[in-house]
Amino acid sequence: MERCVLNYFFVAILSMSTLCSSAAQAAVVEHTFNVGNLTVERLCKKRVITAVNGELPGPTIRAHDGDTIVVHLVNQSPYNITVHCWWIDWCRHGIFQVMSGWADGPGYITQCPIAAGNNYTYRFNVVGQEGTLWWHAHISFLRATVYGALIIKPRHGTKAYPFPEPYKEVPIILGEWWDANVVDVENEALAAGGVPNISDAFTINGRPGYLYPCSQQNTYKLELEQGKLYLFRLINAALSHQFFIRAAGHSFTVVAVDASYTTQHSAQVLLLAPGQTVDALLLADAVPAGDYYLAARPFISTPPSPASLIFNNSTTTALLHYSTTTSSPPPAPPTMPSLPAFNDIPTAYGFYTNLTGLIGPGRPSVPLEVDENLFVTFGLGLVPCGPGRPMCLAASMNNISFQLPEKKSLLEARFGGGSGGVYTEDFPVRPAVEFDFTNVKERLDPSVLVVKKGTKVKRVRYNATVEVILQNTAVLGTESHPIHLHGFNFFVLAQGIGNFNASAAAPTYNLLNPLFHFHFIFFSFNVFKPIAALNLIPPMQVRNTVAIPAGGWAVIRFIANNPGMWLMHCHLDIHLSLGMAMAFEVDDGPSPSTSLPPPPPDLPRC
């Protein structure tokens, strides 16, 4: 259910002409999400899943910059649940955002889960945000089936996109399917102290595609008109895989990532890590005008080894069908694109590092003065797990495996005037143990391998500029980790392979987005010697999720202008469950409009 209501309230004083034209058109976009059981048939079997409004994917939320979004969530499922909407408030041009951290959604961070049979209303304003985001369950593996697109168009009465107007906009959501109860999949893995079973299929808009059994007639189909321009709003909603995606007979022009505009970038192949979004234009100009597959397969960043080869190496497809295709003579079979090899690291990082943010009037600019510096290592490790099984698999940031509270959410504790015994404000700004982070031999050192559990946050003052060096490690294996920050967009200033070296990396920081080049060195993960040097454009991307290279690093920077409690975590879901997370506690600002308001009266309690 969607309802639009005029909203004349604004939190900032603009010029009278802007205020009048915008306020008269801003709307409240209202949905009711009924979360419950749904029986679907996939891979020749019927299975009961948790879904929203009987749909997979769930409903698409469509709004404009300046609107207010209201989602009434009614939990009719047997599970406790929360929903995280990937909205980002930017405070630009003197416009204060509406403080709405209570609606962020991660369980035990900004709220306690919504118990089965209960409900909660998420309410937040969209300020300074345009593009493709999404919403999803933020507790347990329920995210595998509880997700949908959140599309934000330009503010009413303003100029449209900074690229050609598309004929049609199409959400394309990549997902992952288990022929099992996904909650059981996660619980069994955690109980065994290991990793979950691999998925049985990948999906496009909830459907596995032609190459899977019993799926040929249920492949997602998009009808194209010759010569028309389409905007694909791509979302990676998978729990544990990055994806290469390609359309046979067509090419893409990337125009945005994570709801932030980029300089236009032509690409045959796209790559999305879990949690990321890409907006890409596709011109329907294929010859002949027949049937073509849009296909996606995983990118596996782990270096080759017998253990790393155990993964879902299947391919999901959707059908691009030209409306002018005739039945006489019979059309040729659909054309399948040639996809990169599953371990094609140069193609993967070539895509990521050739994207740069769009600069110009009204666009975010990199803050040059830094107030807080953090060096955060992350990876897998071990923790003591009790009698009969001395050690269990864990994940950590700076050797701290994040432990969710149980009695109260972090944000409730913060609002109460202190930590209240729920958390401590001593998250280390550097790892407790300095070591050769990307050396696989270091995994044998107990001081590196064994981590500690804790609910630790980093407190920062309002409006501080925070720089975080994110260093991947090789402890218990190397792989690319998609790191997501709640509550903010951030600037990706640089990326590299190996251990971060400040003196070598600082000159490569892209602070203004000039199109200069630098050498991005790739290393063999087994022997650590250079195997290739590629001339690539360094990033200055505006993102909310960055894929840190396997055995590599990235530097991000953001302005802490949103008071509250904001989670930073790996978006490989099992890694979040294992503790690869931390939180930023951002102080209130100097005025009521820069301070977190009280919680809504229906906020779920633990």
Automatic annotation (TrEMBL):
Organism: Dendrobium chrysotoxum (Orchid)
PROSITE patterns named in the record: MULTICOPPER_OXIDASE2
Taxonomic lineage of the native organism: Eukaryota, Viridiplantae, Streptophyta, Embryophyta, Tracheophyta
EC number(s) per entry: 1.10.3.2
A Pfam family recorded for this sequence: Cu-oxidase
Enzymatic reactions: 4 hydroquinone + O2 = 4 benzosemiquinone + 2 H2O
CDD domains noted in UniProt: CuRO_1_LCC_plant (cd13849), CuRO_2_LCC_plant (cd13875)
Gene3D superfamilies named in the record: Cupredoxins - blue copper proteins
Keyword Hydrolase appears in the UniProt entry: no
Intracellular or extracellular location(s): Secreted, Extracellular space, Apoplast
Coiled-coil stretches noted in the UniProt entry, renumbered to this chain: none
Protein name in the entry: laccase
InterPro entries reported for this sequence: Cu-oxidase-like_N, Cu-oxidase_2nd, Cu-oxidase_C, Cu-oxidase_fam, Cu_oxidase_Cu_BS, Cupredoxin, CuRO_1_LCC, CuRO_2_LCC
GO molecular function, one term: copper ion binding
